[in-house]
Amino acid sequence: MNFEFNEEQMMLKDSIVKWAQDNYSFDQRRVSADTEQGFSKDNWNTFAELGWLSVPFKEEYGGFGGSVVDLAAIMQEFGKALVTEPIVPTLVLFGGVLSESDNETVKAEVIPSIIDGSLLGALAVYEAQSRFDMSNVLTTATDDNGSIKLNGAKSVVLGGGNADKIIVLARTSGGQNDTEGLSLYLVDADADGVDARTYKLMDGQLAADIHLENAEAVLIAENGYQVLERSLQSIHVALCAEATGIMEVLNKTTVEYTKTRKQFGVAISSFQALQHRMVDTFMAYEQVKSLFVGTLCELTDSKTSSEQAAKTVAALRTLTAKNGKLIGDEAIQLHGGMGLTDELSVGHYVKRMMMINLMFGNADFYQEQFNRLAYSAA
Amino acid sequence: MDNSFSAADLEFQQEVRAFFQKEFTPELKARAEAGADVKGVAVEWQKKLYEQGWIAPGWPVELGGTGWSPVQKFIFESERCDAGAPDVVPFGLKMVAPVIIHFGNDEQKKRFLPRILKSEDWWCQGYSEPGSGSDLAALQTKAEKDGDHYVVNGAKIWTTYAQYADWIFCLVRTGNFEKRQQGISFLLIDMKSEGIKVNPIHSIDNHHSLNEVVFENVRVPVENLIGAENQGWTYAKALLAHERTSIAEVANSKRNLAEIKELAETQSNHRGRLIDDPYFQSRLSDIEIELMALEYMDLRVLASMSAGDTPGPEASLLKIKGTEIQQALQELRMETIGAYSASLKVDEFQNKLHQAGSSSRREYMYGRAATIYGGSNEVQRNVIAKAVLGL
Asked: Which has the closest alpha carbon to B233: B313, B130, B127, B315?
């Protein structure tokens, strides 16, 4: 039994910690986040040089060949540093789904460009009417003598404002909510018929609503819904890894703040009412961290059934969402008025965590998923 | 990252499972569940464990321990809960024995330990007093030297199973110092001594397990003092840390959760089976998801203990979360059963729901104690605030 990251993973984590210490103070981060694209291209190139962008990809494409644990290791540190560079849209979402797709030509061409930092990607699944239902797709794909055209609109595409290439889920057959008849396609962001209306999200990243009108596309996977479901497992774990990093920072920052903030002549950390609230947020973090390492163990154990894996991941996302909300709310509350200021990092960490906790579903959505997996078969 | 057991551990698991299947007979199980003969069932079961050599996993091997690794102890506990077998009565085996082993003299070890191993003496714990609960150092029961005896006066309270006990281990005040913790001694007292009176305290579970023990000029031989006079607080503190780690009760809660699921498959509401009710499902998964996290929290502490670390303040965390989950399960079990959970009768009805309801009520009511004993959950929060968060 062993619940620690291995030496190689610790080295990877340390390299991010060290880079962030030297180059990514909260003020330096703000400079990147406040640009029009929402991040620094120089930083992105550094990430590529340091090998971080190669972690989740197979060696045959020039990747590091990392497991879900390796990805989780680096995501925790990106969470702590609150990086605004498009790690999630490009590496986790676009890269994650691309890796699970089955067009070898596309993979061999595109993945090396992610790794060397020259290509940014985005994943376009949801539409205005679909909320968290991936199968609710009206965008169509038609094949006209080998030339595939996409028509429709995709909503809140993360990183969609910066992407060079976009993976799009579109329908070839079936009704609006069918999980069958969906395929995944790759489109160039600057192709004719691709119109990205960009806007900033609360965590600083540049999203887009994307309209597709006879946009030319390449098929990368049939059974698009199933491929997405398969990819989601590592995506969920990566996002929860980032969230654990954020929770750790929020708790530490809050404890430190209460030790320095004086009211009624004493540090407010001396008040028992506040101490117990900070103990509760500490426990909330330890719960998530424990289930998180447990999930990593289960996902890398060949004896874990796919039902068990899906159940554990749903549990992890539920707990991450609930406890993350508690930790975020308490961090702001215990900072008092300062917690409301844009000047402090607290609010920025909270907003990023809120963003994570509405990606692909929210607490209720994941708990309902858990309930279905755990009880409905009984 | 790896949460799997070694081949040797898996083999051990089979051995333990076979033992419980053979020795924890349906007859014994039925008597344990009925709860009428607490002492008889406990002694009979503990003697079986003694014969197997498994009665005291926490003791050093040369004194009767098993020499198990932390993982083996964990496996034993899990299998015990799966089998529905009761834990040993802790006061002798898990509470006073470690203190005698670490701080007692050779004569005391020879005199008390073998009788504890064989369940020949029943022990109870004399810590809390009417004026001293969470603030244990406020205790006032006095022991004054008179020749080769101490004369003890005062009262202890919440003493579980004092009505069965042959011996009580007490914290008593032998000196008055500026620091209250300094004047406390650890004394073993024969319950048959003249001047001891046991007053029953009937609890809200409609049972009698708690007592007040009053001491009036009770003469205790000085050889019953553990270690040095006025050093009892140090000895008791070592023991309290031990008590906390055994409080998370993950395996027990997992079993409770499984039983609630089974009940919910047979119970119904106006829409159909209770287990299919979305609202009930979320009540259940609120707890199940926290329990999954607690299990890994427990395993993380176990893994660090296997690596040689001693459990620190994280034991407080296990206590708080473990007891919160226990209580949440007790509540949900009552609600799952419905009106039968109000029943006080069990013996004369052969109705399964009557039995389940009555025991669920009893567990719920007595279960309120879990967040109070072993250092209340508020005191545990104080411990974490100070020791972990540095507040």
From this structure: B127
C-alpha–C-alpha distance, residues B285 and B34, integer Å: 30
Residue with tokens 């849209």: A89
- Torsion over CA: B295, B298, B303, B306 (sign): negative
**Spatial CA neighbour of A310 closest among A230, A377, A214:** A230
How many angstroms separate the Cα of B124 from the Cα of each of B93, B127, B167, B188?
Answer: 11, 10, 6, 10
Asked if A278 and B389 come within 8 Å (Cβ–Cβ), the reply is yes
What does the pLDDT look like over B229-241, one tens digit per residue? 999 999 988 776 6
Q: Percent of chain A, pLDDT > 70?
A: 99
d(CA B17, CA A309): 26
Of the listed ranges A54-58, A336-340, A347-351, B351-355, the least confidently predicted one is B351-355
**Is B390 touching A (CB cutoff 8 A)?**
yes
Asked whether the beta carbons of B315 and B301 are under 8 A apart, the reply is yes
d(CA A338, CA A147): 56
Burial classification of residue B73, based on how many CB atoms lie within 10 Å of its CB (0-12 exposed, 13-18 middle, 19 or more buried): middle
In terms of phi and psi (left: phi > 0; alpha: psi -120 to 50; beta: otherwise), the region of A64 is: alpha
The predicted-structure confidence for A178-190, as pLDDT tens digits, reads as follows 999 999 999 999 9
The minimal CB distance from B296 to the residues A2, A293, A378 is found for: A293
To the nearest whole Å, the CA of B73 is away from the closest chain A CA by 14
Query: Shortest CB distance from A367 goes to which of B282, B293, B390?
Result: B282
Distance in angstroms (rounded) separating the CA atoms of residues A204 and A188 = 24
Interatomic CA distance for residues B326 and A336, integer angstroms: 34
What pLDDT shows up at residue A2?
84
**pLDDT tens digit sequence for A29-69:** 999 999 999 999 999 999 999 999 999 999 999 999 999 99
Residue A221 and residue A104 in contact, taking contact as beta carbons nearer than 8 Å: no
* Interface predicted TM-score of the whole assembly (ipTM), two decimals: 0.95
Task: Name residues whose C-beta falls within 8 Å of residue B292's C-beta, 6 or more positions apart in sequence.
Answer: A291, A294, A312, A315
Q: Is B225 exposed, middle or buried (0-12, 13-18, 19+ CB in 10 A)?
A: buried
Sign of CA dihedral A28, A29, A31, A32: positive
Give the three-state DSSP class for A3.
coil
Structure tokens at B380: 């545990």
A272: closest chain B residue by CA: B382
Give the burial string for B81-103 (b: 16+ CB within 10 Å, else e): bbbebbebbbbbbbbbbbbbbeb
Name the pTM for this structure.
Answer: 0.94
